[in-house]
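User: Run a structure prediction on this.
Assistant: Running it now.
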Amino acid sequence: MPDVLTARDAGVLTVTLNRPEKLNALTAGVHAGLHEALGEAADGEIRAVVLTGAGRGFCVGQDLTEFQGAAGDVGAHLRATYHPTIHAIRGLDKPVIAAVNGVCAGAGLSLAAACDLRIAADSASFVPGFVSIGLIPDSGGSWFIVQLLGQARAFEFMSAGKPATAAEAHAMGLVDEVVEDAAARAGERAAAYAALPTRAVGLTKHLFEHAVTATLDEQLELEAHLQSQAAQTDDFREGVTAFLEKRPAKFSGR
């Protein structure tokens, strides 16, 4: 079986890490599969993405058997594999929802943090992992988790190495929802997004990411620039028409 599976349901693409016997640990092969899957997600017919893991884990991070003997140039490994994966998630102009169905550790935690929403099963656990083996957060974890938790709480969580339950992760702001079945709930949320004006959702994703480091004037200019794009879409015209006709809008994603 492939290391990464994809399945389409209307406008939703579900991407499943498929190494359940290894708790979906990441290898160069898994990254290659993710790149291919996220390329498929760029298809105009896809309007939302769910990322999850097969079996009882979401992802436990790097498969350390790849580093047996000598780790080599870990920085080069990150640049060649992890960085393109994270950029592909963030560069996708549609929402990506992580369905965290079990243990989520190390770079797996960074992967979930890179998604737009995180829905956790009540049995999920979140393990910083890096410091526990003498490493630092990578794969964007040091950036995304600060945005989610704030600097002080992010440092405490990521440096202490103590696992968090799903309820604790929700309380600190790391996940958006805790439910019994994360995959089912993520599918519902993705289907709802797939019915929205896709281009406006994608531009909003880009807008809020830019706001993290922008000045007010820079953000105002970006709003004006992106609003000009949004106003050219079929969905904008449909939204205005539906509003004036007092009926629900039927968005096409175009």
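Strands lie at 4-9, 12-17, 48-53, 57-59, 96-100, 103-105, 117-121, 125-127, 164-165, 177-179.
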